């Protein structure tokens, strides 16, 4: 392993550890999945650049979501979660009524009781 490759690996790992545990796990999963480690650096640096665009807190939450959903996270999956604001907890809407399920709603009493077949 060359000096610059080792230095880049240390940089990526150090930056991911500074963001949080979930971010570190995403970066490690990307590095572990790559056949050639150098090919994964672009994805890892892309993940770390999302911190500048969306902030470290949102990045950590999105990484937590992606780690809980898949064992092989990718930069594109993470970016989609952040762009669609899936990491932000939304308050449930009030006034939305739950639709009743299908089937018989009247009950046995309406049809003459439950004693006949």
Overview of the molecule:
The chain has 117 residues and is mainly alpha-helical. The protein has a domain at 3-83. The protein has 5 helices and no strands. Residues 90-96 have low confidence and may be disordered.
Summarize the helices and strands and which ones pair or pack:
Layout: H1 3-19, H2 21-33, H3 37-54, H4 56-69, H5 75-83
Helix pairs in contact: 1-2, 1-3, 2-3, 2-4, 3-4, 3-5, 4-5
Structural class: mainly alpha
Low-pLDDT stretches are 90-96
The radius of gyration over CA amounts to: 24 Å
> What's the order of the H and E elements?
HHHHH
Helix content: 55-70%
Span from first to last CA?
Answer: 80 Å
Give the overall form: elongated
Sheet of most strands: none
| Total number of strands | 0
How many helices? The count is 5
Question: Can you give the mean pLDDT?
Answer: 77
* % residues in beta strands: under 5%
What characteristics describe this protein?
single chain, 61% helix, mainly alpha, elongated, 117 residues
Structure at a glance:
It contains five helices and no strands. The chain is 61% helix and 0% strand.
